[in-house]
Amino acid sequence: MNIYVGNLAREVTQEDLEEAFKAFGQVTSVTIIKDKFTGEPRGFGFIEMPGKAEAQAAIAGMNGKELKGRPLNVNEAQPRTDRGGAGRGGRGGYGGGRGEGRGGSRRRF
């Protein structure tokens, strides 16, 4: 089960999270999300635990607990929804649609 951990202090490492969560069971993986441009931690991460019961115990036991001076926000991770684009129509892009007034598209007699 995948667990979301938010409100992480910048100093928190993957090892810190693994150490805190392994008290509830086996930790399969730990990921702290970083800014792709600066490499700085974004303040949240994910923990994967194989068993649902131990993951739920970890959520109940760690939500609100302090780690490096900040209370953690811990809950079951939700799958990302496909946000798609900005709802663009089919005729957008450079130059827009090919309507009237775009040279050469109309015949003149």
Automatic annotation (TrEMBL):
Organism name: Candidatus Brocadia sinica JPN1
Bias (Gly residues) ranges: 86-98
Name this protein carries in UniProt: RNP-1 like RNA-binding protein
Residue span(s) of domain RRM: 1-79
The keyword RNA-binding is annotated on this UniProt entry: yes
InterPro entries reported in the protein's UniProt record: Nucleotide-bd_a/b_plait_sf, RBD_domain_sf, RRM2_NsCP33-like, RRM_dom, SLIRP/GR-RBP-like
UniProt entry keywords in alphabetical sequence: RNA-binding
Gene3D superfamilies: 3.30.70.330
Region of interest called Disordered, as start-end residue ranges on this chain: 66-109
